Amino acid sequence: MPNPIVAKDLTKMYRVYDRPVDRLKELLLPGGRKYHREFWALNGVSFEVGKGEMVGIIGQNGSGKSTLLKIVCGVLGPTGGSLEVRGRVSALLELGTGFNPDFTGRENAYLSGAISGLSKEEMDGRFGDIQKFADIGDFIERPVSTYSSGMYVRLAFACAINIDPDILVVDEALAVGDVFFQQKCYRKIAEFREAGKTILLVTHSMDAIQKHCDRAVMMDRGIITEIGEPRDIVNRYLESLSVRKPDRPEIKAKALQVTDTEDGAFIQSVAGMPEDRCKDRPNYNTNEFRYGNSKAVVTDFTVLDKSGKETSSVLSGDWFCFRYEVLFLQPVDRPVYGFMVKTKDGLIVYGTNAMDSGVHVEPGKPGGRVVVEFSQRLNVAAGEYFLTAGVAEVINSDVEAVDRRYDMALMTVAPTDKSFGVVNLFSAIDVRQGGQGAVMGGEL
In sequence order, what are the residues at sequence separation of 6 or more whose Cβ sits closer than 8 angstroms to the Cβ of residue 184? Predict the structure, then answer.
């Protein structure tokens, strides 16, 4: 069975005029002179989305994400290439798209249904569900121009999901709604996936991409740079934000030779491989994701239990220490040491660094070594978690990765009770007879 969305070599070109009069000159003056510049928002984009698949699209502002979704929805036409979309499409694009501000919420809901090919009788049967899901009260009978951004999104999403689409397209609009409505929307999206519907999601929430999507697409300057597993693509995207020099995306490993000079020890690169004792640790993750500018390297790590012994398994609620060693190859004036805990599916449970915690650190000198320790109580539920170590540097107001080793170590958390979830709050439970028909904070 053909996939619901098949795009081949899509391009989209906009004509950019410096002055409004230039558009008129180009139209009326003979000679065929161009008064515009060409801006290619999309340049040879190809991808497919299968039935029942949820695909997340990420990229920096201006990468072409919104233009691509508008073409999928039929709002824009491509300059070149081909696009096949099979099934009814419902879209929640950026705020301000699709509604007439002078119409009431009710009128806009019926307008949305008519655009999607539904009759008035069909919309009569669906309007109650739209009104209930949007939950904006009497505002449903008021002009949309009087809505807050949150109310606008509530109505837009309610309309988008209640026309029974085969393909749902969401472009960042959910970020405007409050957290309760976002949770409601993601529950509905989960129902859509179970029903075999296709979903395209554009968002800057990396957690949402990893938690909800089957695949992820990364775009940059109008092209698709990578398609793959959400966790891998998110890592690549974070790398693209952190590393200024794209021609050096990963650590170039070299052996080290320390030489004494009047200025102190410095590192001279020679042929071979550097020390990397991390790979010898039993809980090292061979699928770690590593990148940086190579001015320093994380050379070793260990996990210590509350008694100070090396371990790869810690009891839920116990204290533990994550220790790693950094070797400087070049000067780093303002180093930043970080630590992060993530679930197996990429959800960030906890992260911190020495700079944000107000810890004073010395500049890194060539040949110098530091040992970094993060000690904390492990209030997470039983399961397996990945630990990330990293060193970065502050350059002016920017933070550039030096050696980030995402998901470098695997740690098993053993249960101490039958709680569930991601964190363990170690609740103290008290149940007793009594009560006077009132609770703290107010009356029943």
Answer: 133
